Amino acid sequence: MIRGGKRFKGHRCLSGGLRGSASAPKKISRSAEDYLEAIFLLSRDKGHARVLEIARLLGVRPPSVTQMLKKLRDMGLVRYERYGKVELTEEGRALAASVLEKHKVLKAFLMALGLSEPLAERDACAMEHVLHEETVSAFKRLADFMLKAPEGLRCLRCLREGRYLCLQESA
User: Fold this and answer.
1) Strand, coil or helix: 121
2) 79: CATH
3) Sign of the dihedral through C-alpha 82, 85, 91, 93
4) Could you tell me which residues are beta bridge partners of residue 29?
5) pLDDT tens per residue, the chain (171 residues)?
6) Domain boundaries, position 37
7) How many CB atoms lie within 10 A of CB 165?
8) Which of 25, 84, 96, 100 could make an SS bond with 40 (beta carbons 3.0 to 4.6 A apart)?
């Protein structure tokens, strides 16, 4: 979730804590993932981000950004020189893209279950950092099934409403 409650092109995320990922052998904090996501989003158009842009997007102070950028640089995830542009390395870009894809899948899954967009957005932000790739893949298959199902499919109404409608109608 973006810390100041701000939105960035349909993505509202970015938080903190430790996690391990099947896709990334390194242990990386949720906060570090959030910074990578922010840099990824900000650098889509011009290929780089700046410290002040990252700080505004995440709702943090520039010295906090600088401190994290040094850590990310030491991990080989960004290229950064003081007062310069911030660019993701190939590894950093892959990790950021992976987290953003998880977010997209989880949000679609939660909305397919009938949750409101703001709630699905918030929960996807929390889940994207902790769920295993296989779990997200299973949610993606289920979301795809639900979103592509014919209109009025009763089993989906049952799932969304939490009731066995077909059993109630035959009783």
Assistant:
1) helix
2) 1.10.10.10
3) positive
4) 18
5) 344 444 455 555 554 333 444 444 467 899 999 999 999 999 998 999 999 999 999 999 999 999 999 999 999 999 998 889 999 999 999 999 999 999 999 999 898 888 999 999 999 988 998 998 899 999 998 888 878 877 666 677 777 777 777 666 554
6) 18-167
7) 12
8) 96
SS3 51: helix
Indicate whether 2 belongs to any domain. Answer: no
For the entire predicted model, the pTM comes to 0.73
State residue 114's pLDDT score: 83
Residue 56 located in a structural domain: yes
Distance from the Cα of residue 64 to its chain's centroid: 21
How many structural domains comprise the chain? Answer: 1
Position 107 in a domain: yes
Tell me the one-letter amino acid at 32: A
In degrees rounded to 5, what are phi and psi of residue 3?
-60, -35
Q: Cα–Cα distance between 72 and 35 in angstroms, integer?
A: 9
Specify if 82 maps to a domain. Answer: yes
